Every structure is written in C-alpha cells, then in structure tokens.
Amino acid sequence: MKTRHHIKAIQPALAAMRALGFSATTCFEGTGIDASQLDGAGEGISLKQELAFHRRLLLLANDPLIGLKLGEAYRLESYGVLGYAMLSSATLGDALALATEFDLLTFTHFKIKLLHEGEFAILALQQQGSFAPDLLQLYEDRELAAMIAGGEYALGYKLQASKVHLMHDHGEQQTRYEGYFSCPVAFNCPETRFYFDAQQLKVAMPLRDPETSHFCREQCARLLASLTHSGGFAEEVRQRLISAHRAFPKIEELAQSIHISARTLRRKLAHEGCSYQGLVNEIRYTLALDYLKAGMRTEGIAELLGYSDASNFSHAFKRW
C-alpha cells in the first residue's frame, strides 16, 4: 500500500461532500489536514491523514454507501498522465490494460487485475498487505463507482455490469447495491469483481490518438520504473518524490516518512553529491522537456508537474 498521495487525490471526494452540504473545513476536522493545503502545488498527505479523512466522511455522511457517491466524482484526468494515456487509448480493453499495468500510479489501495471468464471480462480488485477493515467498504465502493463514472465519461455511455462481487458484508444494504449496479450482487467474496460483456473491450475510445497514447504510456513506464528501481539513498528519495506524482513533499515531511531528521537527509544526499531541491528540479525538468517535445500546452504541463499556474512553471523552467 502506498503511503502518500497528493492533496488533489481527495479533491473529488471533497466536491462530492460539498454537494451534500459539508465544507472542506468540516471534512478536515480531526484529520491533520488543513484547507489551506488545497492550493499548494507540492502538498501531500500521509496514509494516516488519508484514512482519518475518509473515516471523517463516513461519520459526516452517516451512510455506509458513501463510497459510491465519492467514486462518482473521480474522472480519468484525476490520475494525471495515466488518465490521459487511458483516454487516448485505441479501445476500452487497451485503456483497462493500462490501468492494471500501472495501478501503482493511481490512488487505489488495491491491486487491479483484468481477467476473462467465458463471455465475461472481469475487473478485479485484490487486497494488498494490511488494510483498514473499517474502510474496506468505502474504498471498494469508491473504486467501482469511479470506474463506472470514468468509463461513462470516456465512452459516452454507462458500462453495464452483468454481476458484481464485493468483499465486504451487505450490512442490510443488498437491495441498494443491486439497485445501484442494476445486476445481482454477491457479498463476502475473496476479491472484488465487476463482470461485464467481454465484447465491450473492443469498443473504440472516442478520444483515441496513437501519438498521445504512445507518449503518455512512455511517461507511465518511466514513472513506474523509477518507483521500482533500486539504488543508493538518493535513488530512494528520488523514488519517493516520483511516487508522489505532482505532490513533491517538503523535505521535513519526506524525512519524517523515512524516520530521519531533515538535517540527516540533507547530509546523506550531500554525501552522494546532490541535494533535495536538486532532485525535485531534476524530475520536473526531465518530465517538462518530454511534455514540451510532445507539443503539450504549458497550462497542461504546469498542472501535471504540480504548479499553481503556467506562469509559475515558465519562471521555473527559465531558471532550470
């Protein structure tokens, strides 16, 4: 399970809660997250904060199915370059294959699998390591609802399930679940499964673009390779920075996440001939060059690299 997400990872959920009448300040109460962080280009949240945030939403909503409402607020663009890679894929099957290959680049707490069983294609979610049992239902529901909403946004129509398997108990809510998915729903299953007609995998994506898809896939591969590449201490820091996507944490925050002081982190990096800010700039600069070569607009690059606007990105690029 990943230990850090960008603050933007929870913004769709905040939008859903605002529609229910709850402010960001109310949603953040007792979580250690401050509403002022929402405007920060490099703001990240810890796993502890994320879990506290979603427990808070459960309490406020007073609805065990709130995960479905939260998931509906997510769009493919919420996942950065992976989302753009999926949107520009040739077919739905290609887009889903990307999601399974690069699931480490998403906000999910599950391992995503694309399976086949007779006439059915199956999107499966599998638990990874320890998991907060009180949030299993929320996260499981959120991922399925996000998948359905993302598919409807990308394709222009709702991907209909033939049947759904859920890991959590129905909690007296079976009728609501079957009404939501419009199909039979089984509970207490070993993994989450969303069954649908395998012929749907061949459907062409409306925004398919081979060049954009190829470029975005290369960027996903670069990010994933950086996440899994082993090396010295500087490489470990580099991996943590890249795993945060656009959420480059402050040095004190990253130092705390690996249980050392910021002073020790600086010293260890200096021993390997680099600095913390130098690593942040290196990652941003490398990605910026690739994005510019691909013809992306500066506004889009600024968003992908965690800048509040294109002007700030342009100033930083000139400095580099």
What would your notes on this structure say?
The chain is α+β, with helices and mostly antiparallel strands and 320 residues long. Helix content is 51%, strand content 10%. The chain is built from 15 helices and 7 strands. The strands form 2 sheets. It has a 5-stranded mixed sheet with strand order 3-4-7-5-6. A two-stranded antiparallel sheet has the order 1-2. α5 runs antiparallel to α6 (92-101), α5 (81-87) packs antiparallel against α9 and α10 crosses α13. The longest helix has 20 residues, at 136-155. The two termini are 34 Å apart. The mean pLDDT is 85.
Features:
about 325 residues; 15 helices; five-stranded mixed β-sheet; two-stranded antiparallel sheet; 7 strands; single chain
Sheet/helix structural class:
alpha+beta
Portion of residues within helices: 40-55%
Determine the N-to-C terminus distance: 34 Å
Tell me about the largest β-sheet. 5 strands, mixed
Strand content: 5-15%
Tell me the strand order in the biggest sheet. Answer: 3-4-7-5-6
Radius of gyration (CA) equals 20 Å
As residue ranges, the low-confidence spans are none
Q: Which whole number gives the mean pLDDT?
A: 85
Provide the succession of SSEs.
EHHEHHHHEEHEHEEHHHHHHH
Overall 3D shape: globular
DSSP summary: helix tally: 15
Q: What is the strand tally?
A: 7
Question: In brief, what are we looking at here?
Answer:
The protein is an alpha+beta fold and 320 residues long. It is 51% helix and 10% strand. The mean pLDDT is 85.
